[in-house]
Structures are given as C-alpha cells and as structure tokens.
Amino acid sequence: QVSGVDGLHDVLSGIEAARLSDLTPVKLNAVVLRGINDTEVPALLRFAARRGLELRFIELLPMGPLRGQWAEQFVPEREIRERLSGVVTEWLPRPGRAASARRYLARLADGRTAMAGFISPISQPFCGQCDRIRIGADGTFYPCLLGAPGGSVLPALRPRFDAHLLRGLIQRGL
C-alpha cells in the first residue's frame, strides 16, 4: 500500500540476503504513517529484534507525494514510543556522533534486545547536528529535509560519473 507495488517478498528476500552477507549493521527505515502502519510499530520492532537488525522509526515530513496528507498521517515520536510501551521495558541510549538518528538499545518484554533509532525532524529537530545531504531516487538532492531542493545531481552521474561536476552542483545547491 505504501510503495504502490506488491514487493514484500522481494524486500524480505533482500533483508535476508543482506543479513547472510554480513553487511552489518543492516538498518531498516520505517516511516510511520497514521492509519496505514502505525499499529504495526511493535511488530516491526519484534521483527528487527528476532533478526538482529537495526530499526529506525522516521517521522513523516511535509514533502513529496504525501505533502497534502501530512497533517492526517503524521505520527510524532512521542506517540511511536507510546505504541512501543507494551513491548519495550527500557531504552538505553547508545553513544555515537551526533547525527539525525538518536539510537537506543531497546530491552524488550520478551527478553530480546533490539537496536532502534528515532529520526524525528518535526517533533525533535536536529538541524544543529545535521551533516547530511539526501539524494532522492530521481537525483534531486536536499541540503535540508525541510527546505527547498538544491537541484539535481544526475548530470554528474550520467552518462558517467564526474566528481568535479558533482562537487560544483552540490556547492551551488547549498
């Protein structure tokens, strides 16, 4: 429903292939959407715990194809944590460099543990610690998730990679 294609089998196969290939840590991103997958948050964390995966819960941003529905579908971190209160008995912060995700070792009620993170740019902005540029599947890059796009990097990637052009495109878009 979220992606518009019936690809669950391919996704699960890809996750398992990454696990078996020792690509560690294998991180799963879950954008939580009210009325679509918000009730699945506990099951997602249990899924990650059983497989030794790191799960990151991401707040929906008012951009892209869901911009018009943002207010109805936005779920703040506080509510995501509430949904996990019956599953997680303790959140142990994990040290690391400041970035967009706040990471925790979650102790689960069933005795398992899971690495989990929250990326909460709306309810807990992290602009001062952000050092990322995001690139969309269409080549559009975003110096700020909540700001205007910086342009496209596709001219530097196709037909062949050009590092000098890429650097210039990004510098102009910042």
Largest sheet: 5 strands, mixed
Q: How far is the first residue's CA from the last residue's CA? A: 34 Å
Strand order of the largest sheet: 1-2-5-4-3
The total strand number stands at: 8
Name the average pLDDT. Answer: 90
The best one-word shape is globular
Number of helical regions: 6
Give the % helix. Answer: 25-40%
Describe the oligomeric state of these chains in a short phrase. Answer: single chain
Kindly estimate the percentage of residues that lie in beta strands according to DSSP.
15-25%
- Stretches with pLDDT under 50, minimum 5 residues: none
| Structural classification | alpha/beta
The string of secondary-structure elements, in order, is: HEHEHHEEEEEEHH
Radius of gyration: 18 Å
What is shown here, in short?
By secondary structure, this protein is an alpha/beta fold. The protein is 29% helix and 22% strand.
Q: Please, could you describe this protein's structure?
A:
The protein is of the alpha/beta class and 174 residues long. It is 29% helix and 22% strand. It has six helices and eight strands; from the N terminus they run αβαβααββββββαα. Strands 1-2-5-4-3 form a five-stranded mixed sheet. The protein is globular, with a radius of gyration of 18 Å.
